[in-house]
Amino acid sequence: MAVTIADVARHAGVSRSTVSYVLSGNRTISPETIKRVERSIAALGFRPHAGARSIRTRRTGVIAMALPMVHGPHNQVQMPYVWAALTAAQECGLKVLMLTDDDGEAAIRDVVSGAYADGVMLMEVQRRDPRIALLTGLDSPAVLVGTPDDPRGLPRVDFDFALAARTCAEHLHELGHTAVGYLGQPPEAFAKDVAYAVHARQSVLAALADRGQRGVWAPCEPTPGGVVRALDDLLARDPGLSALIVYNERILPLVLDRLAGLGARVPDDFSVIAICPDDEAERCDPPLTSVSLPAEALARAAVRSLARRIEGEELPAAALLAPELKIRASTGPRRRPGPPGTTR
Amino acid sequence: MAVTIADVARHAGVSRSTVSYVLSGNRTISPETIKRVERSIAALGFRPHAGARSIRTRRTGVIAMALPMVHGPHNQVQMPYVWAALTAAQECGLKVLMLTDDDGEAAIRDVVSGAYADGVMLMEVQRRDPRIALLTGLDSPAVLVGTPDDPRGLPRVDFDFALAARTCAEHLHELGHTAVGYLGQPPEAFAKDVAYAVHARQSVLAALADRGQRGVWAPCEPTPGGVVRALDDLLARDPGLSALIVYNERILPLVLDRLAGLGARVPDDFSVIAICPDDEAERCDPPLTSVSLPAEALARAAVRSLARRIEGEELPAAALLAPELKIRASTGPRRRPGPPGTTR
DNA sequence: CCGATGTGTCGAATCGATTCGACAGCGGAC
DNA sequence: GTCCGCTGTCGAATCGATTCGACACATCGG
């Protein structure tokens, strides 16, 4: 049924090996022969059989992307990473096999030792991630996306949360804010010890403390009620709060709503910095000053690293991506506390 | 490096073919031999090389999932489908190769004629989808998820939008609503002729007309301003509106906010039905009466169908999934029009 | 006791590609 | 004119599995 290299060879009047050398360029072939073979390939629509090829070359041209199921099936945050990874992989000439881990780690082992893929990208690595031990055991090329407590020598790629936090703290510090609230992911993310949630919170609180700013934090459910409770909680614990750092895309409009409901104008009475993708920040009213975590860049870096690792290169232990501060309309100088402004 | 079937055979003291027959069960093997071979397999950690296997069996155990880039890279809606498909595939013993189509259709052709995958699931099929002609040309097993104008004989799976629309219209009809507004996806979805957006709108308007109800519709951006404009537009075109059907997950809370802002209580002054996943409907305040589109079921049906198609079965031309009406707190009988209720 | 009938196992061919070693032809140096 | 070296091509071995045909051996009925 399918066209094989033998069909091409016959059609072009050369041997199979010649066709193969035209394909790989591993030996010099005369220009006329190349042309003839290429014409035959095009005429017959030949594509080398990936399986057959992989058995000699020990390369499949496929990488596996292992998504953990940390937020339940309705996780909304991962798609941009997936997209970016697919695009980056395509640019590197790689295809992507997607894995979930609801079946334990069996899928990863299958894919690696069954030679379905040349390497693995572990997405959203957790602080103590059982997949790490598995991968070091399989000694397959691998890249971690996220920061575990112990990377076991595997190269990792992540956002630079420490720098992001310092950037936020610094910006608010310059504007004169001395008491800052931090709204993070839903409580279950912290309960499950989700790595980026914990790292971001730690980094923010540490950065604030470094500059002598007061900091209080709360997790936040992505519901109107959850936002009300979380904000009330923060304000009760520090009534002098004049700024907020929010790392939770889904609650941004709700937070602005609630602040308006409390009679606080943004940025006149209250400054807000979001840690989120740019388009989410721009979509809000007013557009939010934000520190953007470049998901595309992260996924791209991970794919590129893995590609290089597969080629045999040694990689640096960690590659951290710098966040970017974009000042928009939601941050301003701290006003002396006075009567709350009028609601608009 | 890797363990091959020859290693297992040597370790177990049998021939390679015997090991293979133990693996496939294609010939009777004595229980003792089976036990010995299985022990060797476990001891050596042997997994058959997928590529080598695929060249004889003409099966890879992989399916391709082709996601179109219809909403830009920040599409938030597809993840549940992806999850569900991955899970369903795992249950069927299949792995999933993900494709995007930003590279044209080359990726699909590569994967199919390069024998990377046994079949293709086309996600979010558009009304005139160029991938369809490509696939019929490649004659590879395929399943369409969505409804194109011309399926070209390919089996498809989709939500039953007509039934969903009738269900909504009927429910509102019984409650006495005679003028109903429909809020759909953002304008660009209609501009690009995105199939489900167009089909849902057509179905709703037709179902309303069938029951003698008035219907007006508008697309809607997922921003506060967009919701305000869309609602104002609907109310300007039919001031007698007493109910709303919303098919756009992201705007649900914003719509409720805006209605409250207009002084309309839900459901006393205004009924709202959402077409959305259950958890989104429950998350709102008040919880929304909804017609749920079971994304998991859709993806599962698609994967199962493809698996059967790969096994050689003929499939029905279309499999439509029935939606489910869940009555919650956002729909109620139509009141005589009077002075707007007090805001809460 | 002998031939027919199964059982269980093996050797060898096969799938579709890559790659090593060999070799034919050809031009240039001596 | 002969020999050397280079270029371009080919045949055959190889990768890791599956599967066909054959065969050794045990079992059973007549």
Key terms for this structure?
homodimer, 344 residues, alpha/beta, 434 Repressor (Amino-terminal Domain), Rossmann fold, 3 domains, six-stranded parallel β-sheet, 12 strands, 44% helix, elongated, DNA-binding
Mean pLDDT of chain A: 91
Count of beta strands of chain A = 12
Spatial arrangement of strands, main beta sheet of chain A: 2-1-3-4-5-11
CATH fold-type name of the largest domain in chain A: Rossmann fold
Q: What is the first-to-last residue Cα distance of chain A? A: 71 Å
**How many structural domains are formed by the residues of chain A?**
3
Specify the CATH architecture of the largest domain in chain A.
3-Layer(aba) Sandwich
Molecular shape of chain A? elongated
Characterise this structure:
2 copies of one chain form a homodimer. Chain A has 344 residues and is an alpha/beta fold. The first copy, chain A, has helices spanning 5-12, 16-24, 31-44, 50-57, 79-91, 106-113, 130-138, 161-174, 187-191, 195-210, 224-237, 252-261, 278-283, 295-310, and strands spanning 62-67, 95-100, 119-122, 142-145, 156-159, 179-183, 214-218, 243-246, 271-275, 289-292, 318-321, 324-326. In chain A, helix 7 links the parallel strand 3 and strand 4 (142-145). In chain A, helix 5 packs across helix 14 (295-310). Chains A and B meet through helix 4, strand 1, helix 5, strand 2 and helix 6 of A and helix 4, strand 1, helix 5, strand 2 and helix 6 of B. The structure holds a DNA duplex (30 and 30 nucleotides).
